[in-house]
# Entry
Amino acid sequence: MKHIVNLYENINDTARNNSDCPLVVLPEEIFFTISIIGVLENLMILLAVIKNKNLQSPMYFFICSLAISDMLGSLYKILENILIMFRNTGYLKPRSNFETTADDIIDSLFILSLLGSIFSLSVIAVDRYITIFHALQYHSIVTMHRAIVVLIVIWTCCLGSGIAMVIFSHHIPTVITFTSLFPLMLVFILCLYVHMFLLARSHARKISTLSRGNMKGAITLTILLGVFIFCWAPFVLHVLLMTFCPNNPYCVCYMSLFQVNGMLIMCNAVIDPFIYAFRSPELREAFKKMIFCNSYQY
# Structure
């Protein structure tokens, strides 16, 4: 594995010897199990929205976009494990053209997962902002047609950017671009939050009359954003350290936790669906109908 999503393998032996920190190695079975759970959970989110017309709204479409991002992150690890298994058992020739192509595709899924999460969280933040401060005009501003167009544009940009980042992954400008998207998204949402806070103070009475559902959506976004930062920030920091101080003992000490950071990313895909279900009664009801559909028929 040769791209920025596999930088751990590129740490040179001299740097490792200069660090007293032991390498943390986790069983591949843990990654595989968490990834399977992540795929199944986020697939349930997609099926719940598809099968229930009352959930087919712009807000839930944006949530589906985030669920797809999480699912791609889990699918990346599953396919990577399968590729490694075929290589270790001799069914796949190491460093062959097929392995290189498959590696590129798998790495693209990982980058798509990060980019999709960043843009999905950003568009959910904008949706919440409009819901709270333009509640009366919300349905005329955020229509289904506009939501679908926004999602098409987002995923088209993510796909193009993901392919470009894999092709030029060894160039420092690519790494800088890849890692800068993370803080830029945080700055954008932070600015939106500050603006929302200032408006809330100047329109306190108006805000107090809003439905609890609108404010609950904003709280849900805050939880999702907090989990995303907690799960992805360690890996983004790893990429930066690997690029700019690969031989520094302190950097290498942190990079010894590469697999732990990778597991946090897999956990993000598992945690998000629980947040949706816990915060949304509509989704909980949809899940019950999907799981106990046979019981409801009798």
